[in-house]
Design brief:
This protein has about 150 residues and is mostly helical. The chain is about 45% helix and about 10% strand. The chain is built from five helices and seven strands. A three-stranded parallel beta sheet has the order 1-4-7, with helices on one face. The protein has a two-stranded parallel sheet with strand order 2-5. The radius of gyration is 16 Å and the shape is globular. The chain starts with a helix and ends in a 14-residue tail after the last strand.
Length: about 150
């Protein structure tokens, strides 16, 4: 058990160090606080890195998918390296899909099970629950591909 905890701390330290250098770090940090408060894990004595660790050690958290989306917004080499590291270290939910050009800061996804987001854009401070589909065109017509 000690080795598993140690490895987790190393993974979090690597990801955290790179995250701090990304251009959209403030958005990532803002959403981290939202997740922590939503999950009632927030304690004043926890530092930022410990909060990331709590989020990333949970199984099937939509936060990993959202973190990957935010990291992928960075088109520099650092963002690409971090994207692959996070995917290697933590498995994203395979039932939560982002195919959206722009998502405003403050997105909070509760559970994320069976959720598909493909609108052109999602505004600030959006709350999405499980089993929600946004923006998928209906093959029979009447689609919502232009929703914003």
């Amino acid at each position: 058990m000690f080795i598993r905890e140690f490895v987790l701390k190393i993974k979090v330290a690597i990801v955290y160090a790179i995250l701090k250098k990304l251009s959209n770090y403030s958005t990532i940090s803002y959403e981290r606080v939202s997740y922590i408060k939503c999950k009632s894990l927030f304690e004043e004595k926890q530092n930022e890195r410990e909060q990331f660790e709590l989020l990333l050690q949970e199984k099937n958290t939509p936060y990993v998918n959202q973190l990957l989306y935010r990291i992928n917004e960075n088109q520099n080499i650092l963002g690409k390296v971090l994207y692959h590291l996070v995917r290697k270290f933590w498995k994203p939910m395979d039932t939560l899909f982002f195919h959206t050009a722009q998502i405003g800061e403050g997105l909070l996804i509760n559970h994320g099970f069976s959720t598909i987001i493909t609108a052109k854009s999602i505004g600030r401070n959006c709350l999405i629950n499980q089993q929600v589909t946004i923006g998928v065109k209906n093959p029979g017509g009447g689609g919502t591909e232009d929703w914003e």
